[in-house]
Amino acid sequence: MTLNLPQRNFNVKVTPQGNRVIFDRLRRRFVTLTPEEWVRQNFVEFLIADRGFPAGLMSNEMSLTQNGICRRCDTVVTDHHGSPMVIVEYKAPSIKITQTVFDQICRYNMVLQAKYLIVSNGLQHYCCKIDYAHNSYSFLPDIPSYNAL
Predict the structure, then answer these.
(1) Residue 138 is part of a domain; what is its CATH number?
(2) What is the predicted pLDDT for the residue at 133?
(3) For a disulfide at 3, which of 23, 122, 144, 145, Cβ 3.0-4.6 Å?
(4) What is the pTM of this model?
(5) DSSP letter string over 41-105?
């Protein structure tokens, strides 16, 4: 499927059981290729290749506990001290970006306290910057480079 991201080449193969899998460079293993995973892999490559995000500071499917419930953030980017800077939530291209999606990433951020939240379905991308001092947020016109964060 064509996304609103630069085209990349990925290591995709079919398992002996007939499942399509894609190599996840951050997890260093093959994972099932779902529509959401296709968005994740393309967006991660976009952040690394086009926005200068260091792959070593990124993790996919990062676990966190909120109110005793284990949850997983799609992608978390940290600063050089290991503090969360960016949380990214992905949806399949067929899923519209709604308030419910933003509510989900905001729940994750109650635990992580990142400065930036990004939501993408591969076709539309939204980035907002959290201003904790003024208890507000603002949407940015584009996804910033890592050095601009």
Answers:
(1) 3.90.1570.30
(2) 94
(3) 122
(4) 0.94
(5) HHHHHHHHHHH---GGGEEEEEEEEETTEEEEEEEEEE-TTS-EEEEEEE--TTS---HHHHHHH
